[in-house]
Amino acid sequence: MNEPDRYEIFALAPNQKKVTYQKDTKVKDAASFTLQKEDHTLGNILRMQLLRDRDVLFAGYKAPHPLEHYIILRIQTTPKSNPQKALETAIRDLIDEASGLEEKFKVSRSGSFLGVDLESFDFRDMISTTHTPRAQCAFAGALP
To answer: Cα angle vertex 34, ends 11, 74, to 5°?
Structure first.
């Protein structure tokens, strides 16, 4: 009844910005970024990537409330860098890392494993010889 619509978790309102930037007035070379419609998944991966950068002194995030779908990412850098540049570098590095992982996955899928061609391997053959009849029924129902 008072539950919010599911689309509100991920859909931006027409006039809503995905990322807003606010420079810290008290701490030099620090800023906060508000990322709308994001949660701990993105917050933690960005924080970890930012902390790999030697020019980043502090990186942290918070999700203010479970029913509010945004995170606040706070970054402080050394004077030779700035928070915007650090965030852009972290995002670029994460994209490169994900692309490399995707490429490795594609290569491993197209090859063979222990001399078995994975493209032509039928897992149903393995089920019929290694599992009990009860397990066979459970696995057979899951396979197309």
So the answer is: 150
Answer yes or no: are the C-beta atoms of 33 and 71 closer than 8 Å: no
Would you give the DSSP letter of residue 112?
E
Contact 33, 72 (CB under 8 A): yes
- Give the pLDDT confidence of 56-67 residue by residue, as tens digits: 999 999 999 988
AA identity, residue 116: V
pTM for this structure? 0.71
Q: What angle do CA 16, 66, 40 make, to 5 degrees?
A: 80
φ, ψ (nearest 5 deg) of residue 51: -70, -15
Percentage of the chain beyond pLDDT 90 is 54
